[in-house]
Specification:
The longest helix is centred in the last third of the chain and has 26 residues, at 283-308. By secondary structure, this protein is α/β, with parallel strands linked by helices. The chain is built from seven helices and 17 strands. Strands 1, 2, 3, 4, 5, 6 and 17 form a seven-stranded mixed sheet that branches. A five-stranded parallel sheet has the order 8-15-9-10-11, covered by helices on one side. A hairpin with a 3-residue loop joins strand 12 and strand 13. It binds flavin-adenine dinucleotide.
C-alpha cells in the first residue's frame, strides 16, 4: 500500500492530520491498531474543547472527528505500526499485516496509561483493576471503588464514577490535587467522593476480583485498607513510541522530539499530539499539532515533487 502521507494513529491528532492532508488534495491514510478516537474516545466528559457550549462525551466528539476526516477522503487502515524506516526519500512502515509506504509520515500514536506497579495490579487487571472509567465504570454500579491519581483525568473520572458507584475513594500521593481548581472544588462537593490525600497504594488485594486497596500515608506511615470492588488508575502516561527506536530522536521518557513545525530528527517524519515532547497534552493541543504536522508534510511532498520535475 502506498500513500502520499501515512498517519500512524487515528486519535484527535491523527484524524486532524489526515483531514488537513486530504483536504489539501493528497492521499492520506491513518493506520490504527484499535478503533479511531484514541484516549479521547474513552473520556467520559469533555468540558474544555472549544465549540461545545454543553459538555460532550469523548466518544461523540471523536465520532464526529472521524466522520469529518472520512468526508474528505481519509482512509482508516487497521493495523499496528511495528517499525519505521526512511529510505531514498520515502518512509516505510511495517505492520504485522502489511508494509506501507508513504512520501511522508505523521506519527500520532499518542500515549497509554502508566501502571502503578504494585502487587495485585497485573493479576487483577480486567478483574477490577481498570484504566478506563467510561469503559468499565458501569460494572461497579452501587459498589465502592477507588480512583488513584490527582490530575484532571483522575478527578474528572472520579466524578463520573460517583454518578454510578456508592462511594469513590480518591487516593492521591500529595496533600493537594493537581487538577484545575474548579474541577477539584466540584469533586470535593460531591458527598460520594472521599479524598484520601498524602497516601500511596501499596497493594491491590483480591483473588478472583478486587476486594480492597491497601494504602500508606506518606507523612505518618499509617496504613489503611479500603474495601472496594474496583480500582481506576490515572497516574500519568507513557508514549506509544517504541516502534520508532533507533529511527527518530526521543527524550529520556520516550516522547518524540520535534521542532515547531512538528518535524522530527528523520526527514519526512513528523509527529503530533500526546506522543510528542510538549508541556500540555490535551485534545485541543493534539488537534493543533495535527494541523501543523499535516501542512509541514504537504510542504515536504511539494518539495519532493519539485525535485523530481
Ligand atoms: C481519562 C482521560 C480523560 C481526558 N480528558 C480530557 C479532557 O477532558 N479534555 C482534553 O482536552 N483532553 C483530555 N484527555 C487527554 C486527551 O484524551 C489526549 O490529549 C488526546 O487524546 C491526545 O490525542 P492523540 O491523537 O495525540 O493521541 P491518542 O488519543 O492517544 O491517540 C493515539 C491513537 O494511536 C493509536 N496507536 C498507538 N500506537 C499505534 C501503533 N503502533 N500503530 C497504530 N496505531 C497506534 C492508538 O490506538 C490511538 O487510537 C484525557 C485523557 C484521558 C486518558
Amino acid at each position: 500500500m502506498r500513500f502520499d502521507v501515512l498517519v500512524i494513529g487515528a486519535g484527535p491528532a491523527g484524524l486532524t492530520a489526515g483531514l488537513y492532508v486530504s483536504r489539501a488534495g493528497w492521499r492520506a491514510a491513518c493506520l490504527e491498531r484499535l478503533a479511531p478516537g484514541g484516549q479521547a474516545a474513552l473520556t467520559s466528559r469533555v468540558d474544555n474543547y472549544p465549540g461545545f457550549d454543553e459538555p460532550v462525551s469523548g466518544f461523540e466528539l471523536c465520532r464526529r472527528m472521524e466522520a469529518q476526516a472520512k468526508r474528505f477522503g481519509v482512509e482508516v487502515v487497521q493495523g499496528e505500526a511495528q517499525g519505521l524506516a526512511v529510505a531514498a526519500g520515502s518512509v516505510v512502515v511495517r505492520s504485522a499485516e502489511a508494509t506501507l509506504r508513504a512520501d511522508a509520515v505523521v506519527v500520532a500514536s499518542g500515549a497509554r496509561p502508566r501502571e502503578l506497579g504494585v502487587p495485585g495490579e497485573t493479576e487483577l487487571r480486567g478483574k477490577g483493576v481498570s484504566y478506563c472509567a467510561t469503559c468499565d465504570g458501569p460494572f461497579f454500579r452501587n459498589q465502592a471503588v477507588a480512583v488513584v491519581g490527582g490530575g484532571d483525568s483522575a478527578v474528572e473520572e472520579a466524578m463520573f464514577l460517583a454518578r454510578l458507584c456508592s462511594r469513590v475513594y480518591l487516593v492521591h500521593r500529595r496533600d493537594e490535587f493537581r487538577a484545575v481548581k474548579t474541577v477539584v472544588e466540584r469533586a470535593l462537593n460531591d458527598t460520594k467522593i472521599v479524598p484520601v490525600q498524602s497516601a500511596v497504594v501499596t497493594r491491590i488485594a483480591g483473588t478472583d476480583g478486587v476486594e480492597a486497596v491497601e494504602v500508606r500515608n506518606v507523612s505518618t506511615g499509617a496504613t489503611d485498607r479500603l474495601e472496594v470492588a474496583g480500582v481506576f488508575v490515572y497516574v500519568g502516561l507513557l508514549p506509544n513510541s517504541e516502534f520508532l527506536a533507533g529511527q527518530v530522536a526521543r527524550d529520556g521518557a520516550g516522547y518524540v522530539i520535534t521542532d515547531e513545525d512538528m518535524l522530527t530528527s528523520a526527514p519526512g517524519v513528523f509527529a503530533a499530539g500526546d506522543v510528542r515532547k510538549k508541556s500540555l497534552r490535551q485534545i485541543s493541543t493534539a488537534v493543533g499539532d495535527g494541523a501543523i504536522a499535516a501542512m509541514s508534510a504537504v510542504r515536504h511532498l511539494q518539495g519532493l515533487r519539485a525535485q523530481s520535475r
